[in-house]
Write a structure and sequence with these properties.
single chain; about 100 residues; Alpha-Beta Plaits; three-stranded antiparallel beta sheet; 5 strands
């Protein structure tokens, strides 16, 4: 059985209006292996692992470990986390 584009459902985290409304931040949890390189490289230290992930697996990564989420007030939308992620699990979309 071959999967089509329609079979693939986005699961993960979307944080709208980071950087004072200048960007949206996405994390594709099925790609995140929770290496936390993004946390280490963030210039404003706004990324943190989710302490209590929800039960629907949208906040768990590839190895069922907690993924990261930005602090809405601190994030500047620079995209360093996106460039650092070795698995392309983060997307910062500037508006």
């Amino acid at each position: 059985m071959t999967m089509t584009k329609e079979d693939i459902k986005y699961t993960g985290i979307k944080v709208e209006n980071v950087a004072k409304g200048k960007a949206d931040w996405y994390l594709f949890n099925k790609l995140c292996k929770s290496c936390y390189l993004c946390v280490a490289k963030c210039p404003v230290k706004c990324l943190h692992p989710i302490e209590e992930p929800n039960k629907d697996n949208s906040e768990l990564g590839l190895f069922e470990t907690p993924v990261v989420k930005p602090d809405l007030e601190k994030c500047i939308g620079c995209g360093t986390c996106q460039m650092t992620c070795p698995d392309c699990a983060i997307k910062v979309q500037r508006k």
